Amino acid sequence: MDGKVLQRDNRRIVSFERYLKHPVEKVWEAITRPDQLAQWLTVKSELDLNVNGQLVLRWDNGDEVTGKFTKVEAPYELEYTWMESSSGNSVVRWMLKEEGEGCMLQLTHDFPESAAVIDFLSGWHVHLDVLDTVLQERFTSFPDGRVKEMRKLYASMMT
């Protein structure tokens, strides 16, 4: 398991670190281009990739996230607000660092204590797995069942 939960004041931070055998620039494109995001995160996205630029992420089930970019330092750092009805206002941060033949990806999602931690842990875990598969050009379909498996696993670890 590589997802961790940190507690800070009245907030929780879900944190992941993954080594990807891909150049920073390729990973940056995968996390910032709508056509790439559609392969591993969401079916449709609208991004104004500038500080204060807006973002909208939409899923097949009707879920929608809106936000605003607060930091864009290509190709190493990306930060944006994440607003959705079920979890309120939160912040997602991506940091990429060249390492060996690839890069280290660090993802944090900082949200109110009341948000569903296990859903974020399991969701990001599987989305990051799919991101790596997409980058390797081996993606076939999103493993919906894997999210349920990871939710059970993270829930058992947190009790």
Describe the model.
The model has no long low-confidence stretch (mean pLDDT 93). This protein has an 8-stranded antiparallel beta sheet with strand order 1-2-8-7-6-5-4-3. It is built from 4 helices and 8 strands. It has helices at 24-32, 34-40, 117-135, 144-158; strands at 4-8, 11-20, 44-47, 54-58, 64-73, 77-84, 88-99, 102-112. With 159 residues, the chain is an alpha+beta fold. Helix content is 31%, strand content 41%.
Ranges with pLDDT <50 over ≥5 residues?
A: none
Q: Level of helix content?
A: 25-40%
The tally of helices reads 4
- Written as H for each helix and E for each strand, in order along the chain, the element string is EEHHEEEEEEHH
By oligomeric state, this entry counts as single chain
Shape: globular
Q: In terms of structural class, how would the helical and strand content be classed?
A: alpha+beta
- Give the mean pLDDT: 93
**Strand sequence of the main sheet, in spatial order?**
1-2-8-7-6-5-4-3
Short key terms for the protein model shown above:
globular, 41% strand, eight-stranded antiparallel β-sheet, 159 residues, alpha+beta, 8 strands
List the helices and strands and how they pair.
Blueprint: E1 4-8, E2 11-20, H1 24-32, H2 34-40, E3 44-47, E4 54-58, E5 64-73, E6 77-84, E7 88-99, E8 102-112, H3 117-135, H4 144-158
Antiparallel strand pairs: 1-2, 2-8, 3-4, 4-5, 5-6, 6-7, 7-8
